[in-house]
Specification:
Distance between the termini: 32 Å
Order of helices and strands: HHHHHHHHHH
Radius of gyration: 16 Å
Number of helices: 10
Strand content: under 5%
Number of strands: 0
């Protein structure tokens, strides 16, 4: 799914979706519908559907990715699916479900960080923390967002109005890191 992820990051959503679908089909043929390979593919498809504003399909993909990541013990991907679900539920107007998913994702991240001195996949944790920070900022909870990402070298005095505004963060304005 690395190429599909790259296509997604480049904004080539149709190519990403095609590759995710092909990968999912191959995984299903080899290992069946509960393939370990499918967990990340469902997450990727969830992001594509979200970008296309196909929120119901995005929620279904994310939930399937979360179920599979739970089954296969992939805590980082499970947290990522929950963080994306929080964003999706917020976009659908289901604020209670959004809050529940965000809280569950934050809990998984905190547990993972307590258990392991070095997480299995720091990139996933950074993605989850960034997604959750955006979610909390959209809710007007700036302190919660800052607390969540503070340990990654991001400090309040480094923020500008563009990086703290929910619209700026939704557009992926880079958060300045202190060197």
């Amino acid at each position: 799914t690395s190429l599909a992820d790259t296509y997604f990051e480049q904004g080539k959503l149709h190519q990403a979706a095609r590759l995710y679908a092909e990968t999912l089909q191959m995984a299903d043929q080899v290992d069946g519908p509960d393939s370990a390979y499918a967990q990340g593919v469902h997450f990727g498809m969830g992001k594509v559907f979200y970008a296309w504003n196909r929120l119901d399909e995005a929620v279904v993909s994310c939930e399937r990715g979360r179920q599979l990541s739970h089954r296969w013990g992939n805590v980082n991907l499970q947290a990522a699916c929950l963080a994306l679900t929080a964003q999706l539920e917020r976009a659908r107007g289901s604020f209670d479900k959004a809050q529940e998913a965000a809280t569950a994702a934050a809990s998984l991240v905190a547990t993972e960080e307590r258990i392991r001195e070095r997480p299995h996949s720091p990139d996933w944790l950074i993605w989850v923390k960034t997604a959750l920070a955006r979610f909390w900022l959209e809710q007007g909870k700036i302190e919660t967002a800052l607390f969540l990402i503070h340990d990654k070298g991001v400090f309040p005095d480094a923020f500008t109005p563009e990086t703290v505004s929910p619209t700026g963060l939704l557009l992926d304005v880079p958060i300045p890191y202190q060197l």
